[in-house]
Amino acid sequence: MRKWGKWVAEIREPNKRSRIWLGSYSTPVAAARAYDTAVFYLRGPSARLNFPEYVAEKDRLDDMSAASIRKKATEVGARVDAIETGLLSSSSTSHNISCSTASSSSRPMHPDLNEKPIPESSDEVF
């Protein structure tokens, strides 16, 4: 965690001294998921991950360059950050609304964060 409150992620390239910058995030989970994505592509299925249940082994990159790995990791990190910060802000502002638990119960407990999010229906009544 940086002193200004952001969580950062980076990883060393195998057999090199250079690092791949994976971004800065509002939540530690987002930074860890970005790291997991990058380490999975660099080291394969035997990589030690923070959240192994979220990595889809079927998801492969055609181009294994540092730029491609950075792009995929930052996409995952940004998506997780959006989900995490959305959950944090909605849980603190609407903890008394009973409908918020009903709408979140239709979502899976462990969503696949490598997939594009499905927009919520706009006809829900709160």
Automatic annotation (TrEMBL):
Annotated Pfam families: AP2
GO BP terms, alphabetized: ethylene-activated signaling pathway
Entry's localization field: Nucleus
Basic and acidic residues composition bias: residue spans: 109-118
Low complexity compositional bias, start-end: 89-106
Entry's Gene Ontology cellular component terms: nucleus
Primary localisation category: nucleus
CDD domains, sorted: AP2
UniProt domain AP2/ERF: residue ranges: 1-52
Entry keyword annotation includes Protein biosynthesis: no
Region Disordered: start-end pairs: 89-126
GO molecular function: DNA binding; DNA-binding transcription factor activity
Keywords in alphabetical order: DNA-binding, Ethylene signaling pathway, Nucleus, Transcription, Transcription regulation
Job of this protein: Probably acts as a transcriptional activator. Binds to the GCC-box pathogenesis-related promoter element. May be involved in the regulation of gene expression by stress factors and by components of stress signal transduction pathways.
Protein family per UniProt: Belongs to the AP2/ERF transcription factor family. ERF subfamily.
The protein, known as: Ethylene-responsive transcription factor
Organism of this sequence: Thalictrum thalictroides (Rue-anemone)
